[in-house]
Amino acid sequence: MHIQPNGNTSPCCAWPNSVEFDRDTVKSQMLANEPVVGCGLCYAQERSGQPSLRGHYNTYLTGEDIVAVDLSVDNVCNLQCLMCSSEYSHANAHREREVLGHSITGDTVLSNDVYKSVHWPSVRNLKLFGGEPTYSPGVQRFLEWAEHNVDFSVIHIEVQTNNTIQPNQRLDAVLRRCASLKVIASMDGTPEVSRSIRQGTPTELQWSYWENIPNAELIVHSAVGIYNALDVVDHQAWLRQHHPQWKYHRECLVSPEYLNLQNMPEELKQLYAQHLMPQDLVDYMFVDGADLYSEFYAAHHAYQQRYTLTSPEVLTNYMMDNPRSTDYAVLRRLFSTQ
């Protein structure tokens, strides 16, 4: 069960928001080996020989009970990441109202208590995401409720965090007594690059706190797009030098679409390819996509009005040589189709 900040549920995080989810219907389709509309992404990955989330879950999710819960209880976050929306950070709502004319979520703060309907005795895997779980008042309400309803000693917990805030005493106690702990810390490049993408990130992060929890599995996750693709190699080298305890994982941004490497103009792709990039990123970049440079240019202009940005020199030069309109109408048209 994947619980979103607004309280909507789906079978996993890959299920599209635009597809309605009814658990009984999907369950009967799966048992009958019929295709499920919301599982299209995993089907496509499997056809192309890539590992899918569906395949991953099928290795350990069996039986009739819900044993894994992805839990977001609100969208309260302390950062304003360039690739995020108000759906997962209430702090982005003002930016959307100024640029799009409305916030994507409508309300500034989303919250839910769907967790109260979960049959917790069967749950063995819990993912806490946000907003930001170390900052979220909803997480604190959940933990207070859970004191008499959840046995964390049998639950394997994964925390997805921006690594900017140390957990308070209540959350710390849960993380130290759970069956196992996996920490996914979001960092999108070397410190300066990551701070530019994840606006509001302080200079000092909480590396030592997580490193001092016994037996915690530590992973840095990077979302790679147009702003940081040329920083990936340097980022990995920085991690090896400063935090060798942490594993590294990255994935390519597909949303918002204008930050997707595949949706850059062909000539910009050629310029990127002249620089040091992992080969799999180059291969991904040259898959045909829509040319959304006008949308990117307008979004970049909106960001510049609000933040201090660090862009790779090749991108900065390209934008100077290829100016486009800063009319936000192109963004409004794109988001109106989402």
Explain what this protein looks like in three dimensions.
Helix content is 35%, strand content 13%. The protein has 338 residues and is an alpha/beta fold. The protein has a domain at 65-256: Aldolase class I (TIM Barrel). It has an eight-stranded mixed β-sheet with strand order 2-1-3-5-6-7-9-10. The chain has a two-stranded antiparallel sheet with strand order 4-8. Helix 5 (137-146) links the parallel strand 5 (125-128) and strand 6. The longest helix is centred in the C-terminal third of the chain and has 12 residues, at 293-304. The model has no long low-confidence stretch (mean pLDDT 94).
User: In order across it, which strands form the biggest sheet?
Assistant: 2-1-3-5-6-7-9-10
Structural class: alpha/beta
Q: Percentage of helical residues?
A: 25-40%
The CATH superfamily of the domain at 65-256 is identified as Aldolase class I
What Rg do the Cα atoms give? 20 Å
- Overall number of strands: 10
The CA-CA distance between the termini, in Å, is: 23 Å
* Oligomer status: single chain
Key words describing this protein structure:
two-stranded antiparallel ribbon, alpha/beta, TIM Barrel, 8-stranded mixed β-sheet, globular, 35% helix, 338 residues, 14 helices
Topology:
Layout: E1 2-3, E2 9-10, H1 23-31, H2 40-47, H3 53-58, E3 68-71, E4 80-81, H4 93-100, E5 125-128, H5 137-146, E6 156-161, H6 169-177, E7 180-186, H7 191-197, E8 198-199, H8 207-211, E9 217-224, H9 232-242, E10 247-252, H10 266-273, H11 279-285, H12 293-304, H13 313-321, H14 329-336
Parallel strand pairs: 1-3, 3-5, 5-6, 6-7, 7-9, 9-10
Antiparallel strand pairs: 1-2, 4-8
